[in-house]
Design brief:
Elements (H helix, E strand, L loop, with lengths): L1 H4 L3 H14 L4 H13 L3 H17 L3 H14 L3 H14 L2 H17 L4 H13 L3 H17 L3 H14 L4 H17 L1
Length: about 190
Amino acid sequence: TRLQRQQRDAEAIEVFRKAVSLDPTNPLPHLRLAEALSRTRDADGAVSEFSVAAALLVKLGRRDDALKVLERLLHHRPEPAQARLAAELYIQRGTQADAMQALSKLQICFQSNPKDLTTLDLLSRAFVVLGQAKKGIEVQKEMARIARDQQRYDVYYQLVEKLLVSAPNDEAVQELAAARADIAEKQR
């Protein structure tokens, strides 16, 4: 801290790196190093250390602190994997405000890969938390189509079963169920 006050950031970074090496499972030294790297405009280094700190905080069950770190990381670079983790943590908290935060993070993921089933699952769950179950079902139908196209039939079958419970009279769900039978017949 003294070195930083004296504008000797490079030396401060070396001290923080040593602190990280002494206790690599403690998120605090990683955070201090990340902030120091951020001040010296080393975005890659800052993102890397923020990522490590966030993972450690999640592992320690400190979800709220992990979200703060992920928000800081995403400020530097909107990385889909970290955005997905943040979205998942927001959805786990389960409030509508958190679901809205999750949606903003999922946009990053969706722009990176609109056919990622994990991202789409989180999107569906966010809609449910927001009280928009119909939109969640629409996302699940799209997930089923994508899983079928990717020949991930185990996922496809699970999604169709879930949809038959949540929207049994939906015409598109009925079509997906009929296609499921055709696929199962071809696989025999």
